[in-house]
Design goal:
nine-stranded mixed sheet, Herpes Virus-1, Gly-tRNA_synthase/POLG2, Anticodon-bd_dom_sf, BirA Bifunctional Protein, domain 2, 28 strands, binds adenosine-5'-triphosphate, nucleotide-binding, Signal recognition particle alu RNA binding heterodimer, srp9/1, alpha+beta, five-stranded mixed sheet
């Protein structure tokens, strides 16, 4: 069963309270609410926008800047042909099942998951086991509308079976989901009605480009394809130097079947994707792997899941790669870098795990794939996917368009290849085969080295050979030695040509943003109605709250001056000069996650000093304007912590505001 997500004070996270706080503070709001809203579409308000911008900014610095990646911004409108070639038109689908009576539609894997989890909860209740508060609230809420939750004791063997199914839920295809629905007698949870068998539903939004409607297209479901199609130009831009990575941040669109998980599953979302192009020879080594090899990750491997379990293992990425658990250094390098990025954002490290894809879950061409999952009140949720897509994408686009999406490198040592070559005597060949000439020539060219070797021996012995040429005569064609010769020669290759493989870390910014909010959310003991969002200062939407002690215009002047100076330094700040008590004003900003507060008071008028308050500890220091601004700058940039500042500057105890 999905584990419970607790806050840093050990309380189960109360999602309803958090959600209402986030909407009240305008982090986000359902789109088109005046018209009744549309599932899976949300608008971000000011703190949500600032938070998203800060996450994206940190992403750019952590990946694009740090690794010299080549950022591109490709169009979201994509012609049908491109997505047909990439396989999306045929395969980018989820399984849905319909209730023919009510017309309701369910995503098949989510339905099986929801019903089995509900039954396991019911079993837990029936066994008299404590159901966690969040579990309880959830169950109560669902009981009203979900018929399937009953305090019903299950057989131990059934519990085990359900748990195994849940551990493998991402691995099932349509037929298997259909069988599970049948086997476990899963119905429409609201009406108890029968459901039709699962059918594939393509998640892309279709459109047409141009007024004639003649060019079919889609809103892109990922940013990746644009990057693959600019590969050649980027390689040129990079002066033919490998390896290199492209990166892109932009909206993607997926017509999710029944999005009911807030920002976690939406129909339009911001993605940040990297396509790292690497030479497949040499084990996909990464030049900077040494820098990360000792970083420890929490790994949930494929075999464990196939046994129906979810036990994780902590392991250094160096060991995971050397033992072959993670396929190669480049993939391992990015897993470690993803973990470091999430840490920088303030994601709770005990709520991060990397889950390896099971065979069915992975695209057939992928060599290995790991998801960074974050524990939230929705359970473990994939927030970053990291896949080795091999040479698939470049190969299919090259085959379709004829563009050479390859790397050509001069070899340091020319390569000498001993091989059997076929020489055709064109003067005799043409007149003999006439219109069939092309087909015969293609069949000859297609002969493998082994075939050529044995045919050479046959030619020497009998003076003629027969080869298969489908569609010509009876499918066999005889060739005499005056028409062709097969000889062994040495070919010297100075240029090496290869299709790079691609390692793709793919980030859903909205999922990361929401999970981060859950991870930093807590309430002060004894004051549960007041939420606090403990964002690290660099990621916080607003860095500083400026409060004049009272409505005295002299205080107001001082805070405006500080605000102006902070703005000059690019540090976001807000003045709250309302008549609410200082405690209330700070509480409001705790909910917005503002890490620092500056108060102007009578002492400020006297000696120009100000107090600086830390959101999390509520401790204050007092110092000159210059020192306070310097402290704010270093805290906002993440170069100092509050502990560092508190060591440097004298604590201010007199006027505790909360
Ligand atoms: N509907 C969505 N809403 C928000 N973010 C999404 C959505 N679908 C995908 N993402 C984000 O994009 C990232 C890369 O997409 P990917 O195709 O790997 O997801 P996915 O495997 O289809 O996700 P899921 O299985 O949850 O539908 C995911 O890790 C996730 O953060």
């Amino acid at each position: 069963m999905a584990p419970i997500s607790t806050t840093k004070t050990g309380q189960p996270l109360d999602r309803q309270t958090l959600d209402s706080m986030l909407r009240r503070r305008l982090f986000y709001t359902p789109s088109f609410e005046l018209y009744g809203g549309v599932s899976g579409l949300y608008d971000y308000g000011p703190p949500g926008c600032a938070l998203q911008a800060n996450i994206v900014d940190m992403w750019r610095k952590h990946f694009v800047l740090e690794e010299d990646m080549l950022e591109v911004d490709c169009t979201m409108l994509t012609p049908h042909e491109v997505l047909k070639t990439s396989g999306h038109v045929e395969k980018f689908a989820d399984w849905m099942c319909k209730d023919p009576k009510t017309g309701e539609i369910f995503r098949a894997d989510h339905l099986v998951e929801e019903v089995l989890e509900a039954r396991l909860k019911g079993d837990k209740e029936a066994r008299g086991l404590k159901v966690d508060r969040e579990d309880d609230a959830d169950a109560k809420k669902k009981k009203k509308k979900v018929k399937d939750i009953k305090a019903l004791r299950l057989d131990d063997a059934v519990v085990k079976e359900y748990e195994e199914v849940l551990a493998k839920i991402d691995n099932y295809g349509g037929d298997e989901l259909g069988s599970l629905i049948q086997k476990y007698n899963i119905k429409n949870p609201t009406t108890g009605g029968d459901l039709l068998s699962p059918v594939a539903f393509n998640l892309m939004f279709q459109t047409s480009i141009g007024p004639s409607g003649g060019m079919a297209g889609y809103l892109r479901p990922e940013t990746a394809q644009g990057q693959f199609l600019t590969f050649q130009k980027l390689l040129e831009f990079n002066q033919q130097s490998m390896p290199f990575a492209s990166a892109s941040i932009g909206k993607s669109f997926r017509n999710e079947i029944s999005p009911r998980a807030g920002l976690m599953r939406v129909r339009e979302f911001l993605m940040a994707e990297i396509e790292h192009f690497v030479d497949p020879e040499g084990g996909k080594a990464h030049p900077r792997f040494d820098e990360v090899k000792d970083i420890e990750l929490t790994l949930l491997n494929r075999e464990v899941q196939l046994e129906g379990k979810t036990d994780v293992e902590k392991m250094s990425i160096g060991k995971a790669v050397s033992t072959g658990l993670v396929d190669n250094e480049t993939l391992g390098y990015f897993l470690a870098r993803i973990q470091l990025f999430l840490k920088k954002l303030g994601v709770d490290q005990s709520k991060v795990r990397f889950r390896q894809h099971m065979a069915n879950e992975m695209a057939h061409y992928a060599a290995d794939c790991w998801d960074a999952e974050l524990l939230t009140s929705y359970g473990w949720v994939e927030c970053v996917g990291c896949a080795d897509r091999s040479a698939y994408d470049l190969t299919v686009h090259a085959n379709r368009t004829g563009a050479p999406l390859v790397v050509r490198e001069t070899r340091s040592e020319p390569l000498r290849i001993e091989e059997w070559q076929v020489d055709l005597n064109k003067k005799k060949f043409g007149p003999k085969f006439k219109k069939d000439g092309k087909a015969v020539e293609a069949a000859v060219e297609a002969l493998t080295q082994e075939q050529r070797e044995s045919l050479a021996a046959g030619l020497k012995k009998d003076g003629k050979i027969a080869i298969d040429v489908p569609g010509v005569g009876n499918g066999k064609v005889e060739l005499e030695k005056d028409i062709l010769e097969i000889v062994k020669r040495t070919r010297v290759e100075n240029i090496r040509e290869y299709t790079p493989n691609v390692i793709e870390p793919s980030f859903g910014i909205g999922r990361i943003l929401y999970s981060l909010i859950e991870h930093v959310y807590w309430s002060r003991p004894g004051d549960e109605a007041r939420g606090v969002l403990s964002f690290p200062p660099p990621v916080a939407p607003t860095k500083v709250l400026l409060v004049p002690l009272s409505t005295n215009p002299e205080f107001s002047k001082l805070v405006r001056r500080i605000s102006h100076k902070l703005r000059g330094l690019g540090i976001s700040n807000r003045i709250d000069d309302t008549s609410a008590s200082i405690g209330k004003r700070y509480a409001r900003n705790d909910e917005l996650g503002t890490p620092l507060g500056v108060t102007a008071d009578f002492q400020s008028l006297k000696d120009g000093s100000f107090t600086l308050r830390d959101r999390d500890t509520m401790k204050q220091v007092r110092a000159s304007e210059e020192e306070i601004i310097a402290a704010i700058k270093s805290l906002s940039e993440g170069t100092e912590t509050w502990e560092d500042v508190a060591k440097r500057l004298p604590e201010f105890l007199e006027q505790q505001v909360d």
